[in-house]
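In response to the reviewer comment on reproducibility (Comment 2.3), we provide here a single inverse folding case reported in full, input and output, so that an independent group could reproduce the run without further information from us. The structure tokens appear first.
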């Protein structure tokens, strides 16, 4: 289908701005058109930096405009004026980020309306279910939010800095200890090593590593750097890089702990159903062996003294998504953007310019405007 097809121009634009990657495409499509790093270019010297690195709100606003302009005019090639936009966002998104993107889209790019869709709720629309414990393993952190009968249980959310960034730091640290020059370990190389070579080991082997009686390690791998030099990726690193997500300490801050703590904060009649409907999303959840390790960790932990009297659950079940986990939230937004909710709950440009407010539920000010 030609990119400038008339029907395509009428579709809502769907955006998911992540800490590491941004997904952009159109409503009713099965995958985003582009997944690009969330970085902006410094026009003075041609370097790039993370979008969320800024000194003040004015600098951030300018960076957001530059970034959105690149998305619209370099990638999807659509003039955003009078278009409808679906923004997929986490409920933990900082207020300054939400309001800055809204200001840029409404005032600079003059979009017609914005429909803010909660990430964890949108993800469930891809499964056509309304109850699950949604675990989003992102770049900066892992966020657990229960959704019951289509409503996010906001008093039960849990989050920890257990994401791709922690894994990257672990990989880099182990490689430096193995004598690899830090200049070779660019963010791109680190991520490539993680995606291509690392996996989550099982619970038994993990314990042996922690008890300082390591098992026979998996094979080392030679990894070429720029086609000029070859570095050796140790088998131990490949198998243990993701152990940072499952720390064993007195603080109980590992991924299995925050999942169980989130379930415990829910009313008792919800807990069993949530435990049997766990949905893991996010780019870091694509690593081989993660779901199996997490299931064994949960089954053992729930029988420990810490939880056995509080949470008498003997079974945990996981959903398999219909899309790749790294854009499941975006796909949910694309589904929402093809329904009547886009018109009913979207915040129009006129209402925003009149109130200059961005409510948590965007249809509230629309209703007030109509009543007036």
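Designed residues, in position order:
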């Amino acid at each position: 289908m030609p990119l400038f097809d008339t029907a395509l121009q009428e579709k809502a634009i769907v955006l998911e701005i992540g800490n590491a990657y941004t997904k952009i495409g159109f409503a009713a499509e099965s995958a985003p058109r582009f997944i690009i790093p969330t970085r902006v270019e410094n026009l003075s010297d041609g370097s790039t930096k993370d979008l969320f690195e800024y000194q003040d709100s004015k600098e951030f606003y300018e960076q957001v405009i530059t970034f959105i302009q690149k998305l619209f005019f370099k990638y999807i090639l659509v003039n955003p004026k009078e278009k409808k936009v679906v923004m997929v966002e986490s409920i933990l998104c900082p207020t300054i980020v939400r309001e800055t993107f809204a200001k840029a889209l409404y005032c600079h790019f003059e979009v017609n309306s914005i429909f803010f869709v909660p990430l964890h709720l949108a993800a469930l629309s891809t499964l056509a279910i309304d109850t699950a414990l949604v675990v989003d393993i992102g770049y900066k952190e892992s966020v657990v939010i229960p959704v019951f009968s289509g409503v996010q249980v906001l008093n039960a959310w849990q989050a920890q800095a257990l994401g791709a960034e922690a894994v990257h730091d672990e990989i880099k640290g182990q490689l430096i200890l193995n004598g690899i020059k830090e200049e070779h370990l660019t963010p791109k190389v680190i991520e490539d090593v993680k995606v291509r070579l690392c996996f989550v080991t099982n619970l038994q082997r993990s314990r042996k590593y922690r008890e300082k009686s390591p098992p026979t390690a998996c094979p080392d791998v030679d990894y070429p750097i720029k086609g000029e030099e070859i570095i050796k990726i140790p088998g131990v690193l490949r198998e243990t890089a993701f152990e940072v997500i499952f720390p064993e300490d007195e603080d109980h801050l590992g991924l299995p702990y925050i999942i169980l703590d989130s379930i415990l904060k829910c009313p008792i009649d919800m807990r069993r159903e949530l435990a049997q409907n766990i949905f893991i999303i996010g780019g870091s959840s694509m690593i081989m062996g993660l779901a199996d390790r997490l299931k064994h960790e949960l089954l053992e932990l729930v029988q420990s003294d810490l939880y056995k009297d509080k949470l008498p659950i003997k079974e945990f079940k996981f959903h398999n998504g219909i899309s790749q986990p790294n854009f499941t939230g975006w796909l949910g937004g694309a589904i929402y953007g093809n329904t009547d909710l886009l018109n009913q709950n979207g915040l129009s440009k006129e209402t925003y310019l009149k109130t200059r407010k961005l409510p948590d539920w965007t249809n509230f000010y629309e209703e007030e405007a109509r009543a007036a």
